[in-house]
Amino acid sequence: MKKLVAILLSLLMALGMASAFAEKEYTIYLITMDLMDQHWVNVDAGCKDAVAKLAEEGVKVNYKWDAPTQGKDDAAQIECINNAYADNAEAILLASNGPDTQVATIKQYQADGVKFIYVDSPANTPAEQTLATDNKEAGRIAGEVMLKKLEEDGVTEGKIGIVNVNSSTASTQLREEGFRAAFEGSKFEILETQYGEGQVAASQSIAENYITEGCVGIFGCNEGSTTGTGNAIKESESKIVGVGFDKSDAILQLVKEGSLLATMAQNPYNMGYEGILSAVKVLDGEEIPEDMKNVDTGVTVVDAEYLEKEGN
What we know:
By secondary structure, the chain is an alpha/beta fold. It is built from 11 helices and 13 strands.
C-alpha cells in the first residue's frame, strides 16, 4: 500500500512538473505614439485578443500598453521604452514616433536580449519584424482618389494642402511622399506641408488656413490631421475635396456627411494581433522567415459608397 501511495505521489509530482514546464510566461509591452487615437486603441484590441488566444494554449502574457500622454513626444516615448525595460519586458511592440530618435535606446536593450517588433511605424534600425501599412503606396492611392474626384468635378488645376504630423514620423512622411507622387505631371500645385502634431485642433487651424488660401483639396496624413481637416471643410461649407488616413467614429461621420471624400483605413487590429503572436514566437527561439520580416497589413479606401455597402 505504501509503495502504491509513493508511486501515485511520484506521478502527481511528475505531472505537476510537466505542467509547470509546459506553462510559459512572458512580459510584452505595446508602446505607441499616443494614447488618444482610435488607431492605437485598435492595435491594443488586437494585442488583447492575441493574449487571450495564447492563454488558451497555456502561454501567459503579461501585457501592458503605454505611450506618451501629451501627444507625440519623442523624449516621452523613449521614457516609455525605459520603463518597459525596467518592468522586465522581454519583448516590445513599438510604433516609433521618429525614425532616428529611439535608435540608441532600441540598440541598447536589444543587446540585453529584449526583442523589438515594429507596428505601424519602424525606426531606422533592424527589429525582429515590421507589421505596417505600405505607407508610400497607400499615400499614392489617396492622391489618386483625390485627383480622380477633382477631374470628375472639372477641376484640373489649383492648390492642394497637406496636413502632416511632424517632419520626423516615418510612416506619415511616406504617406505624404506617395500622395505627392500621384500629382506628378498634373497642373496642381502641392503647397508646403504644415504640421499639427496629430492634434485635431491644430490640424483644423492649418486646414482653415489652406481653405483661406483657396485650396481645392486637402490631405490629412493621420487620424488627428484628418479629423481636423474634415471639421474645417465642414464648417466652411465648401466643396474642397478632403482625403485622409485612419478610421475613427468622427472620421466615418465626416465621410458620411460628405465633408471628407474618403479615408485610407489601415488594419491596426492585425498589427497588434500578429505582433503579439510573433513576439511569443521569437521569445520561444523561433526565427521569423525572411519573407515575413516586413508585412504589409493593407489599406482600404473608405468612402460613402463603401460605408453604404457595409451598412454603415
